[in-house]
Input
Amino acid sequence: MTSETAPTTLEAPRLPLELERDIFEIAALSFRSSIPAYLQVAHRIHEWIEPILYNTLMVQRLKDPKLTESTPTPADCRTAEFLASNVHRLNIYGPFPHEQLHTLLDACKSTRDLALWVPFPPPNLLPFLQAMPLERLSVDVAYLFGGPLPMNFAHPAFAALTHLDVQNAVFDDWRFYTELARAPALTHLSFRDKFHPRVLRGALAHCAKLRALGVIWSPRRSAVDVKEGEVVDARFFMVVCEDALEEWEVGARGGRDIWARAEPFIAKKEAGEIKVSLVWLK
Output
């Protein structure tokens, strides 16, 4: 007599959820271009990975006003609660309607690193910045205060600000920028495409915690008017940035941006390994 063996059903082994989540989060952080594919695997993985996708958010606008008006922003596509919880680094680039800009800034309340590269932004931005735990800021500072003067870097919005990248620094006298010395946590300061020796020397002399001061040149701008030797300080450097948007993203994602490359350069000058008069960072 033969006995029949009942067929067995083999279940695919499953990892513990905590381990599975760790694997997908590490993969998402390491291979960001694969995140859209990971989002399709399962609902639980979508919930784990989507916040990583929005952790660093870059919002651009084309110059065509028709596209500007019709193209939705991420604030239109995600709830304010989602953006407030998950966006920590935000780059806004191009012309934006003021109301749309306000909506986006108001939604991204957890932003620590903000690049506001918007032509003619509205003058009433400080309340939005004050709601953020800002540590890094790239902006035309004149527009933060409703006009070129007066500035107020003792404002609570800048209480934790360590890195400031000044766009369109039109004045060549430190007297116009003395408020920078009142930013209580400022350690890294840069100016874009402007070499104003009196401003630079003033910042080095009066910003008490300043560890690095840079002039960042875009390829289209010329540094021929720079006279080396006008600013002599180990903390000072100049560098050419080929792509500002790409450079910002590298830094936002934890890569070796200009500041990371400047640190060992400054350290060598301070240690006497290279001349203090050397300023060009490669």
Q: What stands out?
A: The first strand starts at residue 56 and ends at 60. Confidence is low (pLDDT under 50) at residues 64-73.
